[in-house]
Amino acid sequence: MWSVALLAFAIDALIGEPRRWHPLVGFGRWARALEDCLYANRRRRGLVALGLAVLPPVLLVTLLSFIPSMATLVSVLALYAAIGLRSLHEHGYAVAHALETGDLDQARTCLSHIVSRDTAALEPSQVAAGATESVLENGNDAVFGAFFWFLLAGAPGVVFYRLVNTLDAMWGYRNSRYGRFGWAAARLDDVLNWIPARLTALTYAVCGRYRRALACWRTQAPAWDSPNAGPVMAAGAGALGVRLGGPAPYEGQWHDRPMLGEGSEPESGHVHDALSLVRRGAVLWLILVFLVEWSGLAHWMLHA
Protein backbone atom coordinates (compact mmCIF):
# COMPACT_ATOMS: atom_id res chain seq x y z
CA MET A 1 0.00 0.00 0.00
CA TRP A 2 2.78 2.44 0.93
CA SER A 3 4.74 1.82 -2.27
CA VAL A 4 1.60 2.30 -4.38
CA ALA A 5 0.80 5.55 -2.58
CA LEU A 6 4.37 6.81 -2.90
CA LEU A 7 4.38 6.07 -6.63
CA ALA A 8 1.04 7.83 -7.15
CA PHE A 9 2.24 10.93 -5.29
CA ALA A 10 5.53 10.84 -7.21
CA ILE A 11 3.71 10.76 -10.56
CA ASP A 12 1.53 13.66 -9.46
CA ALA A 13 4.62 15.63 -8.38
CA LEU A 14 6.43 14.96 -11.66
CA ILE A 15 3.70 15.51 -14.25
CA GLY A 16 0.67 16.85 -12.40
CA GLU A 17 -2.81 16.42 -13.77
CA PRO A 18 -3.19 15.08 -17.32
CA ARG A 19 -3.57 17.98 -19.73
CA ARG A 20 -5.77 15.89 -21.99
CA TRP A 21 -8.17 13.06 -21.23
CA HIS A 22 -8.34 13.73 -17.50
CA PRO A 23 -10.69 11.10 -16.00
CA LEU A 24 -12.49 13.64 -13.82
CA VAL A 25 -13.08 15.93 -16.79
CA GLY A 26 -14.57 13.02 -18.72
CA PHE A 27 -16.67 12.10 -15.69
CA GLY A 28 -17.89 15.69 -15.47
CA ARG A 29 -19.12 15.52 -19.07
CA TRP A 30 -20.87 12.21 -18.33
CA ALA A 31 -22.53 13.71 -15.26
CA ARG A 32 -23.63 16.77 -17.22
CA ALA A 33 -25.19 14.56 -19.90
CA LEU A 34 -27.08 12.64 -17.21
CA GLU A 35 -28.27 15.90 -15.71
CA ASP A 36 -29.56 17.07 -19.09
CA CYS A 37 -31.50 13.82 -19.50
CA LEU A 38 -32.79 13.31 -15.97
CA TYR A 39 -33.03 16.73 -14.38
CA ALA A 40 -35.98 17.55 -12.23
CA ASN A 41 -35.54 19.40 -8.98
CA ARG A 42 -36.54 16.41 -6.88
CA ARG A 43 -34.43 14.42 -4.46
CA ARG A 44 -35.33 11.07 -5.96
CA ARG A 45 -34.27 12.19 -9.44
CA GLY A 46 -30.97 13.47 -8.07
CA LEU A 47 -30.37 10.16 -6.29
CA VAL A 48 -30.97 8.24 -9.53
CA ALA A 49 -28.60 10.53 -11.42
CA LEU A 50 -25.93 10.09 -8.74
CA GLY A 51 -26.19 6.30 -8.90
CA LEU A 52 -26.03 6.20 -12.70
CA ALA A 53 -23.04 8.54 -12.70
CA VAL A 54 -20.94 6.88 -10.01
CA LEU A 55 -21.69 3.16 -10.00
CA PRO A 56 -20.48 2.19 -13.54
CA PRO A 57 -16.91 3.57 -13.13
CA VAL A 58 -16.65 2.21 -9.58
CA LEU A 59 -17.78 -1.25 -10.71
CA LEU A 60 -15.30 -1.15 -13.59
CA VAL A 61 -12.41 -0.27 -11.26
CA THR A 62 -13.54 -2.97 -8.84
CA LEU A 63 -13.53 -5.62 -11.56
CA LEU A 64 -10.11 -4.54 -12.83
CA SER A 65 -8.76 -4.68 -9.27
CA PHE A 66 -9.53 -8.40 -9.14
CA ILE A 67 -7.26 -9.10 -12.11
CA PRO A 68 -3.87 -9.92 -10.52
CA SER A 69 -1.83 -8.57 -13.41
CA MET A 70 -3.65 -5.22 -13.31
CA ALA A 71 -4.38 -4.67 -9.62
CA THR A 72 -1.26 -2.65 -8.79
CA LEU A 73 -1.47 -0.51 -11.93
CA VAL A 74 -5.16 0.22 -11.32
CA SER A 75 -4.42 1.24 -7.73
CA VAL A 76 -1.60 3.59 -8.73
CA LEU A 77 -3.63 5.21 -11.51
CA ALA A 78 -6.76 5.53 -9.36
CA LEU A 79 -4.93 7.31 -6.56
CA TYR A 80 -2.94 9.44 -8.99
CA ALA A 81 -6.13 10.54 -10.77
CA ALA A 82 -7.84 11.34 -7.46
CA ILE A 83 -5.14 13.46 -5.79
CA GLY A 84 -4.24 16.92 -7.00
CA LEU A 85 -1.35 18.13 -4.85
CA ARG A 86 0.65 19.60 -7.72
CA SER A 87 -2.44 21.16 -9.30
CA LEU A 88 -3.31 22.72 -5.95
CA HIS A 89 0.19 24.17 -5.77
CA GLU A 90 0.04 25.54 -9.32
CA HIS A 91 -3.30 27.28 -8.80
CA GLY A 92 -2.38 28.68 -5.40
CA TYR A 93 1.04 29.83 -6.55
CA ALA A 94 -0.49 31.63 -9.55
CA VAL A 95 -2.67 33.75 -7.26
CA ALA A 96 0.17 34.49 -4.83
CA HIS A 97 2.61 35.38 -7.61
CA ALA A 98 0.15 37.78 -9.24
CA LEU A 99 -0.39 39.50 -5.88
CA GLU A 100 3.36 39.77 -5.30
CA THR A 101 3.89 41.39 -8.70
CA GLY A 102 1.07 43.86 -8.12
CA ASP A 103 -1.19 42.47 -10.86
CA LEU A 104 -4.48 42.49 -8.97
CA ASP A 105 -6.60 41.81 -12.05
CA GLN A 106 -4.57 38.70 -12.84
CA ALA A 107 -4.77 37.59 -9.22
CA ARG A 108 -8.56 37.92 -9.32
CA THR A 109 -8.69 35.94 -12.56
CA CYS A 110 -6.51 33.16 -11.16
CA LEU A 111 -8.62 33.04 -8.02
CA SER A 112 -11.80 32.69 -10.09
CA HIS A 113 -10.47 29.34 -11.35
CA ILE A 114 -10.49 27.80 -7.87
CA VAL A 115 -13.40 29.43 -5.98
CA SER A 116 -17.10 29.92 -6.66
CA ARG A 117 -17.30 33.43 -5.19
CA ASP A 118 -17.31 36.60 -7.29
CA THR A 119 -13.74 37.84 -7.61
CA ALA A 120 -14.00 40.95 -9.84
CA ALA A 121 -14.10 43.51 -7.01
CA LEU A 122 -12.02 41.81 -4.32
CA GLU A 123 -9.23 43.68 -2.58
CA PRO A 124 -5.74 42.11 -2.35
CA SER A 125 -6.30 40.80 1.19
CA GLN A 126 -9.63 39.28 0.11
CA VAL A 127 -7.97 37.60 -2.86
CA ALA A 128 -5.26 36.20 -0.57
CA ALA A 129 -7.93 35.01 1.87
CA GLY A 130 -9.89 33.27 -0.90
CA ALA A 131 -6.81 31.49 -2.20
CA THR A 132 -5.71 30.44 1.29
CA GLU A 133 -9.18 29.11 2.10
CA SER A 134 -9.28 27.19 -1.19
CA VAL A 135 -5.89 25.59 -0.56
CA LEU A 136 -6.90 24.51 2.93
CA GLU A 137 -10.30 23.13 1.91
CA ASN A 138 -9.01 21.40 -1.22
CA GLY A 139 -6.18 19.95 0.82
CA ASN A 140 -8.89 17.78 2.31
CA ASP A 141 -10.81 17.04 -0.90
CA ALA A 142 -7.90 16.51 -3.28
CA VAL A 143 -5.24 15.12 -0.96
CA PHE A 144 -6.14 13.79 2.47
CA GLY A 145 -9.73 12.72 1.81
CA ALA A 146 -8.71 10.84 -1.32
CA PHE A 147 -5.72 9.27 0.48
CA PHE A 148 -7.92 8.22 3.41
CA TRP A 149 -10.42 6.39 1.21
CA PHE A 150 -7.63 4.76 -0.76
CA LEU A 151 -6.12 3.44 2.45
CA LEU A 152 -9.50 2.26 3.68
CA ALA A 153 -11.01 0.76 0.51
CA GLY A 154 -8.33 0.70 -2.18
CA ALA A 155 -8.90 1.81 -5.76
CA PRO A 156 -12.72 1.43 -5.70
CA GLY A 157 -12.91 3.47 -2.50
CA VAL A 158 -10.85 6.39 -3.77
CA VAL A 159 -12.71 6.45 -7.09
CA PHE A 160 -16.08 6.41 -5.33
CA TYR A 161 -14.99 9.21 -3.00
CA ARG A 162 -13.58 11.45 -5.73
CA LEU A 163 -16.56 11.01 -8.05
CA VAL A 164 -19.04 11.87 -5.29
CA ASN A 165 -16.85 14.85 -4.40
CA THR A 166 -16.96 15.98 -8.03
CA LEU A 167 -20.75 15.67 -8.14
CA ASP A 168 -21.00 17.71 -4.96
CA ALA A 169 -18.96 20.44 -6.64
CA MET A 170 -21.31 20.32 -9.64
CA TRP A 171 -24.68 19.79 -7.98
CA GLY A 172 -24.29 20.50 -4.29
CA TYR A 173 -25.52 24.10 -4.32
CA ARG A 174 -28.35 25.40 -2.15
CA ASN A 175 -30.12 27.31 -4.91
CA SER A 176 -33.32 27.05 -6.92
CA ARG A 177 -31.87 24.58 -9.44
CA TYR A 178 -29.90 22.20 -7.25
CA GLY A 179 -31.48 22.55 -3.83
CA ARG A 180 -33.26 19.20 -4.16
CA PHE A 181 -31.63 17.61 -7.23
CA GLY A 182 -28.17 17.94 -5.67
CA TRP A 183 -29.25 16.95 -2.16
CA ALA A 184 -28.07 13.32 -2.42
CA ALA A 185 -24.63 14.27 -3.76
CA ALA A 186 -24.15 16.93 -1.09
CA ARG A 187 -25.23 14.71 1.80
CA LEU A 188 -23.19 11.71 0.63
CA ASP A 189 -20.15 13.95 0.26
CA ASP A 190 -20.69 15.16 3.83
CA VAL A 191 -20.78 11.56 5.07
CA LEU A 192 -17.69 10.50 3.14
CA ASN A 193 -15.74 13.54 4.34
CA TRP A 194 -16.71 13.47 8.02
CA ILE A 195 -13.69 11.47 9.19
CA PRO A 196 -11.18 12.74 6.58
CA ALA A 197 -12.04 16.38 7.36
CA ARG A 198 -11.25 15.89 11.03
CA LEU A 199 -8.06 14.02 10.23
CA THR A 200 -7.13 16.89 7.90
CA ALA A 201 -7.80 19.41 10.66
CA LEU A 202 -5.63 17.38 13.04
CA THR A 203 -2.92 17.17 10.38
CA TYR A 204 -2.92 20.96 9.98
CA ALA A 205 -2.63 21.32 13.74
CA VAL A 206 0.29 18.89 13.99
CA CYS A 207 2.10 20.54 11.07
CA GLY A 208 1.42 24.12 12.18
CA ARG A 209 0.61 26.09 15.33
CA TYR A 210 -0.84 23.17 17.27
CA ARG A 211 -2.56 24.81 20.22
CA ARG A 212 -3.95 27.71 18.23
CA ALA A 213 -5.25 25.36 15.53
CA LEU A 214 -7.06 23.19 18.07
CA ALA A 215 -8.53 26.23 19.82
CA CYS A 216 -9.86 27.68 16.56
CA TRP A 217 -11.23 24.29 15.54
CA ARG A 218 -13.06 23.90 18.84
CA THR A 219 -14.51 27.41 19.08
CA GLN A 220 -15.03 28.50 15.45
CA ALA A 221 -15.84 25.42 13.38
CA PRO A 222 -19.36 24.87 14.84
CA ALA A 223 -20.46 28.27 13.48
CA TRP A 224 -19.48 27.40 9.90
CA ASP A 225 -22.34 26.26 7.65
CA SER A 226 -20.46 23.19 6.39
CA PRO A 227 -19.87 20.45 8.98
CA ASN A 228 -16.62 19.43 7.29
CA ALA A 229 -15.20 22.64 5.82
CA GLY A 230 -15.53 24.32 9.22
CA PRO A 231 -13.02 22.11 11.08
CA VAL A 232 -10.64 22.04 8.10
CA MET A 233 -10.49 25.79 7.55
CA ALA A 234 -10.70 26.81 11.22
CA ALA A 235 -7.82 24.50 12.16
CA GLY A 236 -5.90 25.49 9.04
CA ALA A 237 -6.30 29.20 9.72
CA GLY A 238 -5.23 28.70 13.32
CA ALA A 239 -2.25 26.62 12.25
CA LEU A 240 -1.15 29.42 9.89
CA GLY A 241 -1.86 32.27 12.32
CA VAL A 242 -4.10 34.12 9.85
CA ARG A 243 -7.64 35.54 9.87
CA LEU A 244 -9.91 34.01 7.24
CA GLY A 245 -13.67 33.79 6.69
CA GLY A 246 -15.79 36.92 6.97
CA PRO A 247 -18.05 38.43 4.26
CA ALA A 248 -17.63 37.16 0.69
CA PRO A 249 -19.56 37.86 -2.54
CA TYR A 250 -21.58 35.09 -4.20
CA GLU A 251 -23.88 35.56 -7.20
CA GLY A 252 -23.83 39.33 -6.87
CA GLN A 253 -24.53 39.48 -3.14
CA TRP A 254 -22.30 39.69 -0.11
CA HIS A 255 -22.82 36.86 2.36
CA ASP A 256 -21.84 37.06 6.00
CA ARG A 257 -19.59 34.23 7.13
CA PRO A 258 -18.05 33.64 10.56
CA MET A 259 -14.45 34.61 11.12
CA LEU A 260 -11.90 31.81 11.19
CA GLY A 261 -8.46 31.68 12.70
CA GLU A 262 -6.63 34.48 14.46
CA GLY A 263 -3.57 36.54 13.76
CA SER A 264 -2.57 38.74 10.85
CA GLU A 265 -4.55 39.88 7.83
CA PRO A 266 -4.18 37.50 4.86
CA GLU A 267 -1.54 38.27 2.24
CA SER A 268 0.24 36.40 -0.51
CA GLY A 269 2.68 34.79 1.92
CA HIS A 270 -0.17 32.98 3.62
CA VAL A 271 -1.07 31.25 0.35
CA HIS A 272 2.49 29.90 0.21
CA ASP A 273 2.26 28.92 3.87
CA ALA A 274 -1.00 27.03 3.24
CA LEU A 275 0.56 25.15 0.34
CA SER A 276 3.55 24.25 2.52
CA LEU A 277 1.19 23.08 5.27
CA VAL A 278 -0.60 20.70 2.88
CA ARG A 279 2.70 19.37 1.53
CA ARG A 280 4.05 18.71 5.02
CA GLY A 281 0.81 16.96 5.88
CA ALA A 282 1.08 14.72 2.82
CA VAL A 283 4.64 13.76 3.77
CA LEU A 284 3.49 13.05 7.32
CA TRP A 285 0.74 10.72 6.08
CA LEU A 286 3.18 8.86 3.82
CA ILE A 287 5.61 8.43 6.70
CA LEU A 288 2.87 7.15 9.01
CA VAL A 289 1.64 4.65 6.41
CA PHE A 290 5.21 3.44 5.91
CA LEU A 291 5.72 3.02 9.67
CA VAL A 292 2.46 1.10 10.04
CA GLU A 293 3.34 -1.23 7.18
CA TRP A 294 6.93 -1.65 8.37
CA SER A 295 5.85 -2.47 11.92
CA GLY A 296 3.37 -5.01 10.59
CA LEU A 297 6.01 -6.59 8.38
CA ALA A 298 8.52 -6.67 11.23
CA HIS A 299 5.97 -8.30 13.52
CA TRP A 300 5.22 -10.94 10.88
CA MET A 301 8.92 -11.69 10.35
CA LEU A 302 9.57 -12.01 14.08
CA HIS A 303 6.64 -14.38 14.61
CA ALA A 304 6.75 -16.31 11.34
Automatic annotation (TrEMBL):
Pathway: Cofactor biosynthesis; adenosylcobalamin biosynthesis. Converts cobyric acid to cobinamide by the addition of aminopropanol on the F carboxylic group. The gene is cbiB. PANTHER family: COBALAMIN BIOSYNTHESIS PROTEIN CBIB (PTHR34308). NCBIfam families: cobal_cbiB. The chain crosses the membrane at residues 50-83, 142-164, 282-302. Keywords: Cell membrane, Cobalamin biosynthesis, Membrane, Transmembrane, Transmembrane helix. Belongs to the CobD/CbiB family. This is Cobalamin biosynthesis protein CobD. It comes from the Bacteria. It is found in: Cell membrane. It is a multi-pass membrane protein.
